[in-house]
Structure formats: structure tokens, C-alpha cells
Amino acid sequence: MSSYQYSKLVDADIRLLTLLPGQPDSNIKIQIHHAPLRAPPDRPRQQVTLDELRKKMPDGWEAQETVEGQYIFENDELNVTSWSLPDDSVPASLYSTPADETVFIPQYEALSYTWGNPENPQTVQVVSHDDPSIFWTQEIQYNLSGALKHLRYPDKPRTLWVDAVCINQADIPERNAQVPRMSDIYRLADRVVVWLGEEMSNSKLAVSTLDYLGAQIELTKQGGRLPSPGCDHQDWFRSLTEMPYEDDTWQAIADLVNRAWFGRLWVLQEIQLSNHKAVMQCGMNQISWQRFRRAMVCLESKRNLPQVVIFSKLPRLGVFCLPVEGVNFAILLLRVTHLDCSNPRDKVYGLLGLASPSLLARVQAQYAEPVESVYRDLFLAMTDQMQRLHFEFCSLRTSQARQLASWVPDFYGDLVELLFRGGRYASGMSCSHSTYVAPSALYVSGIRVGTVKSNKGVYPDDVTKRLAVLHDWKPDNLETGLYPTGESVMDAFATTLGQDQLRDRFPTSAVHPYLDEWKDKLNKLLVDSQDSGGHPDIGAYAYDLRFLTKQAFVTSNGGYFGLAHRDTAPGDIVCAVLGCSVLVILRPTTVGTFLLVGSCYLHGFSSAEAFLGPLPSPWIIQYKPDSFGAQAPYFFNKDTKEETQEDPRLGKLPPEWEPVEKERTRDDPMLFRWFRNRNNGYTMNSDPRMLPLALHERGVRLEDFQLF
Questions:
Q1: Which neighbouring-strand residues pair with 612?
Q2: What is the second-level CATH architecture of the domain 50-94?
Q3: Do the Cβ atoms of 706 and 594 come closer than 8 Å?
Q4: How many CB atoms lie within 10 A of CB 32?
Q5: Which of 102, 343, 422, 582 minimizes the number of CB atoms within 10 Å of its CB?
Q6: Furthest-apart CA atoms within the chain: distance in Å
Q7: What does the alpha-carbon distance between residue 327 and residue 356 come to, in Å, rounded to a whole number?
């Protein structure tokens, strides 16, 4: 019996698998054929936009858009949500979602699953189209075999696209060509079917529980939650509402979300690109993807989850369940850092289906390329696309281990542990000014902020050692001293430990504490307990201090302190780099070049002070969510209560420039504003007053740094 031999794909063809009917215990039989896959033109939107609809709302009513693209209406006073408005003041034709009865050809279902352990492969029969008595054999992995047996109909064929069979995995050029097409393959599928694996004793309980919970809730594209119109439980969507589940139900949910599918990277784009018909299947139990994602987002928001759920994968499922519209590729890389893939190149290629056309034009799947080239080329492509430098992902330790240049992130590593939540406006609304010189040099422009004097130790993983480390970090003049910015040392130290994630900075947040609340907690932890000889429970502060793990407390000349990469050493320099939202630690070499150690937060330099000086009183910088939920900076006058996007330090915009309003897209960096030159029409996503020439005219002396 010979093995199946692939024929070459030509033009727009893909392969499709026909799963032939059979009984549960019979051999798996398939047929393989080619079919052209050409994306149809986009259909024009028939609804009015959300902004237009909101202008027409009757008094008391607010309009939102669900992640499925439906408009939903809420009335807080009546405590009701509805798919329609109570009167005909707004014609239903403006907001109704027309049924799409178009059948795309070829019609197929796309399977989303994990390959699993390569041991114990199974054999399927590939049946000839011309003579059903002739067949060849093909090996597939055990998990796929289980999926096909459960998906097979007893009495009719089923057409599927399955990557392990429909792509010749041994043909590298074909893989390179097919990877960019996977976005269309999953987007154009009649339905995406997620295979979670065989049924377990509590799978049915988990699926039925989540199905019912998902029916109570709607998700908006801005990340909000609302009660579903006509639902049984109007308050289940609220974070403070406790769910009436027994221990066995929580265990069933934890067991379901701990399955391998939720830990793999490739499946993310597969489900994000699916349509509203997508389903998840565990054994013979099914739940619609829409209800599952609503249930997950609801549970993740709960304040009092049992330990079995907190330590499951559930708290990290937002990347699957929340929409990625307006999310750029750098943020995607951060969100998937915990997801696994066997080939390090797939940390890039496994997400290309969610990349913007602009980035796709710059990045091509090339599996024969060394990993270091793939990561370097992606970094340069993102820099070119967004005009920003994502040094917050860099770590000298991991770059050297993978033989990367110090300025090239190791995207296969844990990016979250490198990230500083505070100080995301360190270079203001500036764009990058960098030049790459092959094979490994990158020139950037910026300012030296200071020189590191000491590294006072790293916040440990070991909970029992954390309090001692915090006492080592504590400044000697904590209770009486003044910080160089003019505030108290206690205020500066508390803000630093909270990574500037305080409600004073994020006034719309219900999660972050105010500075005074946070100081009281720290006083009890560091001062009161020491005075009384007590032994506070550091575990009670685990949530508030969770982002400190593996970060070091450093001091610099001038009396400043902050948090930095754990490998920061005395003599390293702190720099603010144009186009980089965080400060960075650079290590001088003996030949006048620099190594990028990592990013840092130095209190007093989180709001572009290195370039523009401190904000004049009574102005402060705050953040509030934009239409996509991203935190955007604005400036608040504490005396007049004025809010503006204009940085009061910059002065008037030059007459040849004007601000332009544009909605966030996947091509935009996290922080951006659009400006247009009236003379030539040129637009840019950064402030022209932060260009090198404009800064030079302000007396700012920029320095070029050669990074290796």
C-alpha cells in the first residue's frame, strides 16, 4: 500500500479534504481535491456608522456595537437593553443587520485544532476520485485522528480544510506560499470548527454551563459587557456579581480551558478570523464560539474567582475572546507571549493572518531564514510601518542567548516580564529617527537622562523573600525627604512601586487605586509593621505588586530612582529615545557603541521631561480610553478642569501644520496623533513639534547612539 503523493498547487488553488461517511469504529477515509480560493470584493456597509447612529438616539438611550457587528441599545434609567429602539424615531433600516445569504464557493469548514504529540501516528486512507477501490495511505497525528472520527457524518461526506493534510508540510516553498493565505482560508470558511479534544467526565457540565452564561451577556467592540436583551439574569455581566456555581462546576470550567488548544499560538488567528457560525467541540458536545467568548470575558472580569480558576488559563484568554480591530502587531506579540509554538519563527508567521496589509507587504514567511533574521526583519518592518521603536520588548540577556543584536527582541521569550506599565510617554508624541546598517547596527537619536549609580536587587519570584527586598529598596529618607521633582520621596516611591498605574493618572479606571490609598497600604507594609515589630502578609499585596517580578530597583545621579531591567549595572546610562515610549538602559562599550540592556521607568521622566522639561503647574498628564479601549494621553488643568490633547509645553502648532482626526487602525502605534502639512498634504502620526529640527530650535541637544 503506497503513500499518498501530493500534486502541486497552481495559481489560486488550495487543497480541500472530503471526509467520507463512516461509523465510529471504522477506518478514516478521505479524498483530496484542489479548488481555487479567491477572496470576493468587500461588500459595502449598509448600516449607518455608530457615530452617526448615536447622534440620532432618543433621550435616555445609548447605542453600542457588539463584537459580532450588531447594534445594541441600552437605557440605564430603565435598566434594559434591546436590539431595537422603542419608537420609530430612528428607522430600523439604519441599524438592522441584513441577513447575508450569500454562499461562498468553494464551501468548506476549516478545522482549528492542536497537532499534539507526534508519537502514535494514525493512518488514514486517501481514496481515489476515479476508482473508490483504489486508495493510498497518509499518516496523521493522533489528535487529528480523534477529531476526524468525531466530525465524520454517518451518512454523508463533509468538506474540510485541515492544515496538516491540505498543506504539504514537507514542501517548504509550498508552506511559505500557503501561510499568508491562511487568513483568507479561515475568513472565507463557511464555518470554523474548533476541536478541543475527547470528552472527559465533566466536559458536558462545563460546556452547558458556559453556553447558558454566554446567553446572558453581550460584548461590545470597545471591550464592554451588557446584559443580553431578554436574558434571564440581568446582573450576571457585572464584575461584582458572584456566580452561583458549585466547586465541581468551577473545576469543570478550569479543566476545559486548560486544554491544549488554549495554549497554542496558531489557533488564535484561526478563531479571530472566523465568522458568527464558528463552534467549539469537545467530544460530541458543542458550544457556539460567540457564547463561549462572552462567558470567558464575563468570568475573567469577576473579582472573587476560586483558586482553581485563577490558576487556570482563563485569566489569559482575553487575546482569544476580545476583538483585535485596531490592535497593532506589537501589541499582538505582547498578548501572545504565553502561547506556544514549536518553531520560533511561528511567533511571527503564526500571527500574519491578523497583520495589516501594510505590514504584510513588509514581512513574508520564509522558513529557511535563520530565526535571528526573522526577528530582526520584523522589528525593522514594524519600525518602518508605525514609525516607533519597540525597545520595551528588548533584553540583552535573551538577545545574546539567541545571538541577536541587543536591539532585536527575542519574540520567543516572555515579553510580559520585560514590560514596564508606567512611563509610556517618555518621548512624548515623537516618531523614531533610526537608521539600520547591515548586518547588526542601529543608529537612534535621543538624550542621556542619567547614569545608573546602583542596582538594589531584583524583586523575586519567591514570595517569602519579597518583603526583605522591598525593605532593601526603601530609601533612607522615605518619610521625610523631598524628591528632585519637588514631591515627597514617599509619593515618588509609592508611584514607582505602582509603576505609575494609579487612578490619579487613569481617572476612568475602577481597578487602579488613588495615590493616597496606595501610600496607606505601603505604609502598613513597610513602615508601620517595622515600627511595631509585626510581620505583614506580603501575599495580600501580591496583586498590587504583581508587575514588579524580575525587575530591579535602581538609583541614578541627581537623586532619581526607578525600576529597570534586572541586569542593569552601575555605569549604564538611562536614555530617552525619539519614537520609543519608554526609557531605555544603554551600556557603553570600549569602542564608543552601545548595547541595549532593556527598558526602565525612572520616576520624574515618564512624561517627556527629558525633551520638554516638567509640566507647568497646574497641568498633569492623564489617560482615558479611546474608541478602541486603548489608553490615550491628554492634559488636565487641575484649576480650570480643562482637558486637551495639546501638550502645554509645546506651544502653538506651526501654521503649516494642522491636526487631523483619524480612527485607530492596525497600522497605528499605541500612542499617536495625526497631523497634516497644509502646503504639501503630507501626513504623519506624530507631533511635528517633536521633530529633531523643532527640538533643536527649542535648545534640545540630541545625541546619536550606535546600537549593536
A1: none
A2: Single Sheet (2.20)
A3: yes
A4: 18
A5: 102
A6: 90
A7: 10
* C-alpha cell belonging to residue 212: 447558558
Distance of alpha carbon 211 from alpha carbon 290, whole angstroms: 9
Contact 351, 269 (CB under 8 A): yes
Q: What is the 3-state secondary structure (H, E, C) of 92-155?
A: HHHCCCCCCCCCCCCCCEEEECCCCCCCCCEEEEEECCCCCCCEEEEEECHHHHHHHHHHCCCC
Residues 6+ apart with CB under 8 A from 420: 392, 499, 551, 563, 582, 599, 600, 601
Helices then strands, counting H and E runs in the chain, come out as: 22, 28
Q: Is the pLDDT of residue 670 over 80?
A: yes
Amino acid of residue 699: G
Instruction: Go through the chain and tell me how many residues it has.
Output: 708
Q: Taking the alpha carbons of 592, 595, 596, 600 in that order, is the dihedral positive or negative?
A: negative
The whole-number pLDDT of residue 425 equals: 95
73: its cell numbers: 441599545
3-state helix, strand, coil in the chain (%, to 5): 30, 20, 50
CA-CA-CA-CA dihedral for 656, 662, 667, 672, to nearest 10: 60
Cross-sheet strand order for the sheet of 285-288: 135-140, 122-127, 29-36, 13-19, 158-161, 109-112, 191-197, 279-282, 285-288
C-alpha cell at 65: 456595537
Q: Which long-range contacts (CB under 8 A, 24 or more apart) does 393-398 make?
A: 393/330, 393/333, 393/334, 393/418, 393/419, 394/418, 394/584, 394/596, 394/598, 394/599, 395/565, 395/567, 395/597, 395/598, 396/565, 396/567, 396/587, 396/595, 396/596, 396/597, 396/598, 397/567
pTM of the full structure:
0.90
Q: Is residue 701 within a helix (H) or strand (E), and if so which, with residue range?
A: none
| pLDDT score, position 423 | 59
563: phi then psi, degrees, rounded to nearest 5: -115, 140
Residue extents of the structural domains in the chain: 13-41+103-189, 50-94, 197-321, 383-459+550-708, 465-547
User: Which of 400, 388, 342 minimizes the C-alpha distance to 169?
Assistant: 342
Phi, psi values for residue 344, rounded to 5°:
-55, -25
User: φ and ψ at 573, to 5 degrees?
Assistant: -110, 145
Q: Cα–Cα distance between 598 and 704 in angstroms, integer?
A: 18
Determine the pLDDT at residue 268. Answer: 97
Q: Assess contact for 499 and 424: CB atoms under 8 A.
A: no
> Which phi and psi (to 5°) does residue 169 adopt?
-65, -20
Identify the sign of the CA torsion 18, 22, 23, 28: negative
Task: List pLDDT tens digits, range 490-549.
Answer: 999 999 999 888 999 999 887 788 999 999 999 888 876 555 455 566 766 776 787 788
CA-CA distance, 230 to 234, in Å (whole number)? Answer: 9
Give the whole-angstrom CA distance, residue 529 versus residue 449.
Answer: 36
Rounded to the nearest angstrom, the gap between the alpha carbon of residue 63 and the centroid of all alpha carbons in its chain is 26
Residue 303 confidence class, pLDDT cut points 50, 70, 90: confident
Question: Quick check: 339 and 399 in contact, CB under 8 A?
Answer: no
Buried/exposed code over 182-200 (b: 16+ C-beta within 10 A; e: otherwise): bbbbbbbbeebbbbbbeee
CB neighbour list of residue 110: distance below 8 Å, 6 or more residues apart: 160, 161, 185, 186, 189, 191, 192, 193, 270, 274
How far does the chain reach from its first CA to its final CA, in angstroms? 56
Q: Check whether 26 has a pLDDT greater than 80.
A: yes
Contact 669, 387 (CB under 8 A): yes
**Tens digit of each residue's pLDDT (9 = 90 or more) over 434-473:** 999 999 999 999 999 999 999 999 999 888 899 999 999 9
Q: Is the pLDDT of residue 86 over 90?
A: no
User: Scanning the structure block, which residue is given the C-alpha cell 550606535?
Assistant: 706
Q: How far apart are CA 533 and CA 676, in angstroms?
A: 62
The cell for 698 is 527649542
